[in-house]
Design goal:
- The complex is a heterodimer of chains A (242) and B (247).
- By secondary structure, chain A is α/β, with parallel strands linked by helices.
- Chain A is built from nine helices and nine strands.
- Chain A folds into two domains: 148 residues, Rossmann fold; 69 residues, no CATH class.
- The longest helix of chain A is centred in the last third of the chain and has 16 residues.
- With 247 residues, chain B is mostly helical.
- In chain B, 76% of the residues lie in helices and 0% in strands.
- Chain B is globular and about 65 Å long.
- Chain B starts with a helix and ends in a 13-residue tail after the last helix.
- The chains are: A alpha/beta (242), B mainly alpha (247).
- At the A-B interface, helix 2 and helix 3 of A face helix 5 and helix 6 of B.
Chain lengths: 242, 247
């Protein structure tokens, strides 16, 4: 039986006057690749931020299995005016649990850059890299922390097709984990249904801050089954595909 | 010497002839304003960066007060510092009245709100956009504010120059607490006011030109630094050497 890594029980999130999430309950097992889909404002990003502890929840419970390490990637990564290497090293140095000194952080950062194929630009300013390179750099920053769960908020939304493919390949490789016995759980928000189909094992459809469908990927892309399980999700998918 | 052009020519002669009367005043002005700005910059950047990320009851009122202090009239600062430093005032025991230190204190009070408010704005804007990314990496609010302030160092440099411009060009505060004493507390702005009232327009104009020149030089220096910074960021940055690790 696969271990449950994250459990949400009737979680609600209030953002100002708006109820951004309502009664969200789900269990995510180790090694799952969960895609969050839905229209803008449906609660995908809010759910990711709540899972990562960046937003407090006003109702329910968010539980993580003991010792689970998480990292999060954003649509537009923010890099400091430092070299690519030092940007990754800083991310590691900030991880207090790891307690690395600067030299050790740099050595690990270099490995992470090699992992994403950016070792040749290690000395270049992170801000001067292309959008795709910046996102790969952010992936390296996240990967270097050796997370059990990787959360990604529309990681390829602002990239060109080539960069999209590169990031997607890295996501798939990271999800496979350092060994087959230690897969990394991926939870990501996306508008790209093709990418969802290629990468995910499970799809959660959100609308108005509520989960309207939570299905294995094959079922989600089966129009008959989806229409039966969730007419709202079916309408969304048809709208996106048409 | 009653025409503008005659005054300008005489002023230029004063400047080029390295007239000690002029350059002593210029040096004192620079020393007072630079000291006040360095102190105010240290305090203001730290306070502004903290205010950018701190959330506490009454923060809105503090920011409103801070923004109001941006328009603080220098004569009011002079008056307050005068009351503080006068013999019967709470800081009278320091014996700073009509001294270099009194002028530094007045200009410090004048520019601290400028540095604080502008730093707060710069850091808060970046924090609002990207703060959660650094929070997700484990940076707490204070560390985040320092990182983001460091990252916006070119903008903070501009704030420093703005503060210096405000300090060196003010006249009210230094006049009140310095007393415009020849050879001790006379600075460019107080000297300009005095020489104009005496009718010595060339000296007043000469000082005015130097004052403008100083601000011009500072801005030029800032532009050079910014351009250097941009070029430096476009080139590969040196990676701190690691034993046995080569990118």
């Amino acid at each position: 039986m696969t271990a449950v890594q994250i459990a949400l029980d009737a979680v609600g999130v209030q953002l100002g006057a708006q109820q951004a999430l309502t009664g969200v309950s789900l269990r995510i097992d180790a090694g799952e690749r969960v895609a969050l889909v839905g229209a803008n404002g449906s609660g995908k990003s809010t759910l990711l931020r709540t899972l990562h502890g960046l937003l407090p929840h006003s109702q329910g419970q968010v539980l993580h299995a003991p010792g689970v390490q998480q990292a999060m990637l954003f649509q537009r990564p923010h890099l400091l005016r430092l070299s690519a290497l030092n940007n990754v090293a800083l991310g590691l140095w900030l991880d207090r649990q790891r307690g690395l000194n600067w030299k050790a952080a740099q050595a690990m950062a270099l490995q992470a850059l090699q992992r994403v194929g950016l070792q040749s630009v290690a000395g270049q300013n992170g801000r001067q890299l292309s959008g795709g390179q910046q996102q790969r750099l952010a992936l390296a920053r996240a990967w270097a922390r050796q997370p059990d769960v990787l959360l990604l908020d529309e990681p390829t939304a602002s990239l060109d097709p080539h960069a999209k493919r590169e990031v997607e390949t890295l996501m798939a490789e990271f999800a496979a984990g350092p060994t087959a016995a230690q897969p990394v759980t991926l939870i990501w928000a996306s508008h790209n249904l093709g990418q969802v189909k290629r990468l995910s094992t499970r799809v959660i459809y959100l609308e108005g801050g509520r989960i309207m469908a939570d299905l294995p990927v094959a079922d989600f892309f089966n129009p008959v089954l989806l229409a039966e399980c969730s007419p709202a999700a079916h309408a969304f998918v048809q709208g996106e595909l048409s | 010497m009653n025409t503008f052009s005659d005054s300008v020519i005489a002023a230029l002669q004063l400047i080029t002839s390295a007239d000690p009367a002029l350059w002593v005043v210029v040096a004192r002005s620079l020393a007072v304003s630079a000291t006040a700005c360095l102190l105010a910059y240290g305090v203001g950047v730290a306070l502004g960066a903290w205010l950018a990320v701190a959330r506490f009851r009454g923060r809105g009122a503090v920011l409103l007060g801070l923004n109001t202090l941006l328009a603080l009239p220098s004569v009011v600062v002079g008056l307050v510092v005068y009351l503080l430093l006068s013999r019967t005032g709470p800081l009278g025991f320091l014996g700073w009245m009509f001294s270099f230190k009194a002028m530094v204190l007045a200009q410090f009070i004048l520019v601290v709100p400028v540095v604080t408010a502008l730093t707060r704005q710069v850091v808060e804007d970046v924090e609002r956009q990207h703060g959660e990314q650094w929070a997700s990496l484990g940076a707490g609010p204070w560390l985040r504010s320092l990182l983001l302030a460091w990252d916006e160092r070119l903008a903070l440099l501009t704030i420093g120059v703005t503060a210096f411009g405000r300090a060196i060009s003010e006249v009210g505060a230094v006049m009140i607490v310095g007393g415009n004493i020849d050879g001790f507390t006379r600075v460019m702005t107080t000297a300009i006011a005095l020489e104009t009232s005496k009718g010595d327009l060339p000296l007043a104009l000469g000082l005015g030109m130097v004052l403008l020149g100083v601000v011009l030089l500072l801005n030029a220096l800032l532009a050079v630094i910014r351009r250097w910074g941009e070029r430096r960021h476009a080139r590969p940055l040196p990676v701190i050497a690691l034993d046995g690790v080569h990118p």
